[in-house]
Amino acid sequence: MNSDVIDFASLAPAYPEMLLAIGAVVLLMLGVTINKERSLLVSYGAVLLLLVVGALVMFAPADGVLFNGVFVADSFARYMKVLVLGGSAFSLLLALPRAEENGTHKFEYAVLVLLATLGMMMMVSANDLMSLYVGLELQSLSLYVLAAIKRDDSKATEAGLKYFVLGALSSGMLLYGASLVYGFTGHTNLQEIVLAVAEEGRSIGLIFGLVFLLAGVAFKISAVPFHMWTPDVYEGAPTPVTAFFATAPKVAAMTLMVRLTMDTFQGITQDWQQIVIFLSIASMVLAAFAAIGQKSIKRLIAYSSIGHVGFALVGLSSGTQVGVEGVAIYMAIYVAMTIGLFACILALRSDGSYVENISDFAGVAQKRPFVAAVMAVVMFSLIGMPPLAGFFAKWHAFLAAIDAQLYVLAVIGVLASAVSAFYYLRIVKVMYFDEPTREFEAVPMELNVIMAVSGFFVVTYYFTIGAPLASFAHVAAGSLF
């Protein structure tokens, strides 16, 4: 290559990130220059940009390692990027109706979502501890602002502050772990660390570094005992922002967890396996029991998301390719169920405000039968009842654990699912058997469409997308082995 000419063709694996970065800057400048009331244009532009980038990832695949080994594009990264982009796009669509009441009518909201998504895509493709941290911080800083985007709301401000303080603590832990790993291996590149571990074996310093690294990532996926921020932030942030927090960032952080354990530290599987098994059991058990006493729907969803992270980690605990496939399938189904759930919550609005308590869902089946039907289907799927999508998500995760002879872990997972059925079914009971106490406003068309798509996916998963998704997950997981 001529030193005076940039070979853009060689940058093909990074085209999606480059397009997203340029698009975010263009939309930012557009938002600054146009009339504030027309900021909706920026939101639609952001959704279109995410869809275009998603199409680029799917239909113009390019694998390779770029920028002196700090960025990697492979099948696993592509699969997870599609989930991240899909979660972000649907979260933006959820925020479009009644944006003024949510505090998401500012053009900055869409731009921050794009920048957070760019950080997530960098995390997914990180092949170096430094690029990993840069991607993580780009995501985190955007999320801190998004949590407090509704500045005149004291709950949202408190949520943003809590998230920022605890997030800074987790970033410090992750950085400390990264410095220990670098100190004991002499490398920051993940592939170089693989070779160093293979040559030198495990050391106590490396194990400490691994523990701190995984603790930092566990904070981002809300795994117990690093979950303390989740209920407060989910409850305080505007509901569309909570929907975003519960989907795309979880996928990106889970990808990071998989890449660090299954790829970088595969040579010391027995060490990280104990950590992941503990995170999995603690998350499933605590979430199952802590959610029972919740009265706020968003706090209940927070504990639900903690529990589902625990179920996904059951698959990772196996340390096998089947386990990684289970995680990939689980995250796809989890994103679809969560988007549908938040669409149902945003569809229910009464007396100028959204329903916040579980008791507010009384009589929804009589007043808004379609919303109640979709929400009931999603609740049954979250429990893991066949033949809904949630059943197959847990099936793949538990199957990987059983194949790896982690029978106790699988049994704990099944029991935690049984306990969680109580609080999911309580919502269905309130919707269908309690007398209505309020009138609900008309449901915006966008939310009806999202609910219909999510409900269709959950109900027909086995007959429609189940086999292709499993095939894609198999190819994605295979690229790590």
UniProtKB/TrEMBL annotation:
The keyword NAD applies. Residues 126-419 form the NADH:quinone oxidoreductase/Mrp antiporter transmembrane domain. Its main location: membrane. The chain crosses the membrane at residues 12-34, 41-59, 79-97, 109-126, 161-184, 204-229, 272-293, 300-321, 327-348, 369-392, 404-425, 445-463. It catalyses: a quinone + NADH + 5 H(+)(in) = a quinol + NAD(+) + 4 H(+)(out). This is NADH-quinone oxidoreductase subunit N. NDH-1 shuttles electrons from NADH, via FMN and iron-sulfur (Fe-S) centers, to quinones in the respiratory chain. The immediate electron acceptor for the enzyme in this species is believed to be ubiquinone. Couples the redox reaction to proton translocation (for every two electrons transferred, four hydrogen ions are translocated across the cytoplasmic membrane), and thus conserves the redox energy in a proton gradient. Its EC number is 7.1.1.-. Keywords: Cell membrane, Membrane, NAD, Oxidoreductase, Quinone, Translocase, Transmembrane, Transmembrane helix, Transport, Ubiquinone. GO terms for cellular component: endomembrane system; plasma membrane. It is an enzyme of class 7 (translocase). Belongs to the complex I subunit 2 family. NDH-1 is composed of 14 different subunits. Subunits NuoA, H, J, K, L, M, N constitute the membrane sector of the complex. It comes from Devosia litorisediminis. It is found in: Cell membrane; Endomembrane system; Membrane. Pfam families: Proton_antipo_M. GO terms for biological process: ATP synthesis coupled electron transport. The keyword Phosphoprotein does not apply. GO terms for molecular function: NADH dehydrogenase (quinone) (non-electrogenic) activity; NADH dehydrogenase (ubiquinone) activity; quinone binding.
